[in-house]
Predict the 3D structure of the following.
Amino acid sequence: MILSAGDLQAVILTLELALVVTAILFVAGTPIAWWLARTKSRWKGPVGAVVALPLVLPPSVLGFYLLLAMGPNGPVGHLTNALGVDPLPFTFEGLVLASVFYSLPFMVQPLQNAFEAIGDRPLEAAATLRASPLNAFFTVALPLALPGFLTAGVLTFAHTVGEFGVVLMIGGNIPGITRVASVQIYDHVEALEYGEAHSLAAVMLIFSFLVLLTVYAWRPGAKKA
Amino acid sequence: MKTIQTLLLIVCCLAASLAHAEKIVIAAASDLKFALDEIAAEFRQIRPDDTIEIVYGSSGKFFTQIQQDAPYDLYFSADIAFPEKLAKAGFAASEVKPYAVGRIVLWSAQMDASKLTLKNLTDSSITRIAIANPKHAPYGKRAEEALRSTGIWAAVETKLVYGENIAHTAQFVQTGNAQIGIIALSLALNPELAKLGDHYLIPDTLHEPLAQGYIITKRAADNILAERFAAYVDSKPAREVMTRYGFTLPAKDR
């Protein structure tokens, strides 16, 4: 199976996007998940709900709001304008920002579960050994939550790869910048190029299966260890 | 057992009565959004008991879906080539009827497009130009042709952003995310869009004609309502609506 240059470009762009988004979410999602797992604040419920919103919201809702927000008359648009940078719609950076929102629950929720599973005792033990909270996080919580990090990372990556609606609404379908694999497949189907659509769709199918296989095969192993 | 039989009977009766209250679903190119909505509203006033539902989208997508037996009774395509292919493949219950010729315009919500021409698109102050995807959207194909015959395709290609269909393209411009775009005249003439900015009519000598056509699909072969609606689209009031939205109409009584 040979992909055309355009298809290959779309696949590489998709992987780039997913990598950048996963990296950003590791940094941004970990403190949120940690806070959600440990806090007794009355804000836990509302924050948790906001984080989970992209799970239930149609991508069209998110795409619509982002398009308006990032546009020249929206709050983000005003900000980018004031900073003298290009408006975000139709740019790779815009896709990254949108995907960070869209994939947020896929990072935060597995991490939150992993942190909650650790419980208080290992951290209390660390505290009695005079470990600072930060120290305890890096030396105790982080290693214990490692399987959770793997799951969160893989799911975030895979979910960003599978993104379609939001990208279609704010991307503008520019080759090499916002034309990701899912949009490319859609274009092939619309243009009645079923052969090309099949090749690229098969690549995506196999990729997604392998990713999920990794997660599901790895988890029981982690428990045995 | 008896209750199940009764239930089945009720379901059958319901289904039969539903079939009697006539209903059609129309798949229409998104350039028809405002014009066909008006035509359908007028038709509903004449026949209030019937149900007419219209789905707007890209002509290419509907073409694919109808080949997979999508439940559309009428198909209004922005490119007559699609219904012609369907008719050839046996998916049509009527001949292919041309209903209009579309036009493309330059439209912006930020500047007065009526004072511009295509050549202005190379201006460095314009960084984002929205057109429909030329790969599968008829209006996008014509936009590309117009840009190519003006000799500015290479100069503007990097500024282009592509809408999924012509309504999506207009939305990029309407929200200000693209400063200017090439959209359907029928959309630019809608009051909602017209109040945001004027348009420049792109000469139709620069591109192939946007010949549009419709068919009644195979599944609606015996659907009287589909035929009635098709006939209504060719009536005087409907033709007036189409003309008001900037469509050039085929001569009556061809």
Chain B has two domains: 20-101+210-244, 104-201. The mean pLDDT of chain B is 90. The beta strands of chain B are 23-29, 51-57, 74-77, 97-102, 104-107, 129-132, 160-163, 180-184, 199-201, 210-216.
